[in-house]
């Protein structure tokens, strides 16, 4: 909200003066965050408020009860950090002081996750590929769609942004560098060069906080020791190991939390439930229509669960199984060694190939087996992202250079990506049969092992006489 015009500054009312103060929001990660009126114009819309009903970590909340935070607060935190970083650069390096840059970067950070669907990445990574096979779509595509819809319906007539500004904001959301603006601005929200951005600064620390985990990565130091050199953000060279800690923290969270086996089992159950309901509710078609997408969030689960439509019976049963913890079962996992990376492809390890190795009486069908293929890395696939980071020292603060990892530590990783095949079953009674079949298939390619059942993880090996334990736990009676 802007000041009203007055001939005499003393005539400004207390209400007018108070209304011009930035909006303050108390956040457990960043403390008091301030937002100007042009930011509030975006926040106070149905498009942004929708993010209150989308869990930041999706189905992880069903495993870690503390992870109850939503995309709403993450986007606020990301916008606050983006605004803080740009202001700091503009103060310390006045040549980069452009007011519109500050506004555009802040709004891009605020709106970068507008396109997330129900249960965050569960929707775009698992459900959409299942419901609309061959359809190329990412949540960033929906973020652009929802930003356009928000802009046209709520902010176009009230915010001083022109067509080029809007295009610039959308480029910042996707990370695709466009001409006509300072290059360094594209390093702030979605950094496609080295993946160091305020989005990670917020979600790594926010997720650790709500998960009850300690984070050794300190984003505030990186922001404090950053400066623009050659129109890119560079960092003080002594922060190089902190950057490795950033990427290791990200890897650890993916390894231990984001891809937690129980969370993934629930994710597949939710996707099956939504896929069964899709022909009736047309959930997957909402990605084509911003009006329909505006109504799509985590409450879709309740919509299915409480429906009396007989056509949704299969979906309701799956949701009931989630409520009663009768979950799909994790069976096995295999970390693919480098020598087999090009051999164990999706065409060679899939449900059809696994059941082809079953024993005579196993009675396995393709629907009994789920193959989950995940890639864990340092955010740049099999590359070291720090190789793309520019540094400076205290003697020549405007001269950038790259650091070889040997100049940082000999204990940093040699390999930056691993591929893991994980197997789940929809039928717990077939867990043993699925594991044996999977390991027989692996043995075809891993000829160094003589035992056909030793290719999987030793920790997950089921006993020879294994049978699924009963769901209910035995009653406990306290001694008198």
UniProtKB/TrEMBL annotation:
GO terms for cellular component: nucleus. PROSITE patterns: HD (PS51831). Residues 470-480 have a biased composition (Basic residues). It holds the Pfam family HD. Residues 71-204 form the HD domain. InterPro entries: dGTPase-like, HD/PDEase_dom, HD_assoc_2, HD_domain. One of its GO terms (molecular function) is dGTPase activity. Transmembrane segments: none annotated. GO terms for biological process: dGTP catabolic process. Residues 445-480 are annotated as: Disordered. PANTHER family: DEOXYNUCLEOSIDE TRIPHOSPHATE TRIPHOSPHOHYDROLASE, DEOXYNUCLEOSIDE TRIPHOSPHATE TRIPHOSPHOHYDROLASE SAMHD1. This is 12102_t:CDS:1.
């Amino acid at each position: 909200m802007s000041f009203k015009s007055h001939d005499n500054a003393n005539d400004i009312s207390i209400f007018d003066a108070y209304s011009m103060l930035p909006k303050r929001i108390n956040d457990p990660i960043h403390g008091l965050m301030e937002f100007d009126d042009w930011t509030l114009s975006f926040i106070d819309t149905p498009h942004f408020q929708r993010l209150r009903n989308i869990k930041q970590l999706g189905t992880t909340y069903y495993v870690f009860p503390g992870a109850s935070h939503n995309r709403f607060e993450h986007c606020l935190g990301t916008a606050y950090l983006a605004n803080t970083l740009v202001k700091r650069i503009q103060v310390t390096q006045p040549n980069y002081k452009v007011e519109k840059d500050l506004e555009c970067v802040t709004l891009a950070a605020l709106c970068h996750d507008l396109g997330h669907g129900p249960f965050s990445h569960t929707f775009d990574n698992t459900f959409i590929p299942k419901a609309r096979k061959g359809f190329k779509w990412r949540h960033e595509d929906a973020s652009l769609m929802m930003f356009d819809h928000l802009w046209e319906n709520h902010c176009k007539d009230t915010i001083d942004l022109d067509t080029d500004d809007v295009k610039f904001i959308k480029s910042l959301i996707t990370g695709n560098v466009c001409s006509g603006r300072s290059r360094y601005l594209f390093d702030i929200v979605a950094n496609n060069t080295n993946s160091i951005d305020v989005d990670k600064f917020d979600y790594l620390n926010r997720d650790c906080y709500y998960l009850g985990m300690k984070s050794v990565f300190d984003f505030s130091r990186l922001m404090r020791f950053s400066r623009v050199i050659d129109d890119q953000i560079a960092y003080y060279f002594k922060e190089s190991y902190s950057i490795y800690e950033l990427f290791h923290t990200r890897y650890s969270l993916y390894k231990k939390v984001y891809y937690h086996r129980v969370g993934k089992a629930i994710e597949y159950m939710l996707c099956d439930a939504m896929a069964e309901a899709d022909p009736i509710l047309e959930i997957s078609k909402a990605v084509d229509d911003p009006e329909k997408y505006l109504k799509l969030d985590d409450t879709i689960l309740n919509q299915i669960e409480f429906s009396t439509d007989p056509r949704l019976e299969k979906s309701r049963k799956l949701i009931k199984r989630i409520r009663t913890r009768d979950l799909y079962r994790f069976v096995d996992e295999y970390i693919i060694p480098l020598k087999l990376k090009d051999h164990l492809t999706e065409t060679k390890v899939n449900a059809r190939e696994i059941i082809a190795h079953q024993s005579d009486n196993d009675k396995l069908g393709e629907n009994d087996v789920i193959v989950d293929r995940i890639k864990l890395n340092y955010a740049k696939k099999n590359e070291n992202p720090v190789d793309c980071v520019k540094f400076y020292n205290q003697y020549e603060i405007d001269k950038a250079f790259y650091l070889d990892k040997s100049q940082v530590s000999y204990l940093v990783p040699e390999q930056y990506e691993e591929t893991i095949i994980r197997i789940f079953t929809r039928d717990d009674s077939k867990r043993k049969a699925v594991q044996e079949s999977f390991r027989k298939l692996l043995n075809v390619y891993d000829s160094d092992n003589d035992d056909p059942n030793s290719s999987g993880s030793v920790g997950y090996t089921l006993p020879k006489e294994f049978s699924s334990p009963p769901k209910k736990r035995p009653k406990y009676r306290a001694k008198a």
